[in-house]
Amino acid sequence: MNERSNSQREGSRAEASANAIVFIVEDDVSMRRSLTNLFQSVDLDVVAFGSAREMLQSKLPDVVSCLVLDVRLPGLSGLEFQTELAKSNIHIPIIFITGHGDIPMSVRAMKGGAVDFLTKPFRDQELLDAVIAATERDRKRRAAEQTVVNLKSLFETLSPREQAVMKLVATGLMNKQIAAELGLAEITVKIYRGHVMKKMRARSLADLIRMTETLGLRANRPEQT
Q1: What is the pTM of this model?
Q2: Which of 109, 152, 164, 168 is the residue whose CA sits 20 to 30 A from 37?
Q3: Which of 60, 64, 49 is closest to 16 using CA atoms?
Q4: How much of the chain exceeds pLDDT 90, in percent?
Q5: Alpha-carbon distance 35 to 38, whole Å?
Q6: Other Cβ atoms closer than 10 A to 126
Q7: Who contacts 101 (Cβ-Cβ below 8 Å, separation ≥6)?
Q8: 89-98: per-residue pLDDT in tens?
Q9: How many angstroms separate the Cα of 167 from the Cα of each of 22, 173, 174, 205?
Q10: Shortest CA distance to 47 belongs to which of 25, 30, 31?
Q11: For residue 16, what are the contacts with CB-CB under 8 A and spacing of at least 6?
Q12: Which residues pair with 45 in a beta bridge?
């Protein structure tokens, strides 16, 4: 039982460390060094900063990552930094650490989207588990965003007519109804529909509908009187 658990844990660590970076913002030099050594001991790449401003002024690599952030920092506090990152549309998962936490502080952090809020002293494994969860969250977010980018790219290859047909198909209209909406022959709509399925690489109607939902597409249909 323990061997299986350890094996799964090691697998999770390996997955988390693949092309992932842990950022640390901690003003205490000894704590910063200790955290760096901990993460490097499990083959995680680490970039450490002494303040929030220092990290804000740095050019961060665009890779799967998470941020281990002290709550109490000189200048911009950890919670204020969390707000600044959100305003800047930087969605890095945050794990807060603090020696002086309280319930309102942890509630604010979690409501702001933090992955975890750990009070010092915490166990090394507790922090590593939080980092694994955070990097996995960031990996999934990036994959979802890339899916949208890819779909947008495919959608832009469609002609204006094909785009209109795709939107109407997703509303559940039949070819005959779409033809009436667009003033086209039914056979023409059928041809456009085939082009749409091929260009969007949709395997089924359900697949195409999911694509329109992911892209947030809406058909501009005339109001019924």
Answers
A1: 0.77
A2: 109
A3: 64
A4: 79
A5: 5
A6: 11
A7: 71, 117, 119
A8: 889 999 999 9
A9: 42, 10, 12, 12
A10: 25
A11: 44, 131, 132, 135, 136
A12: 21
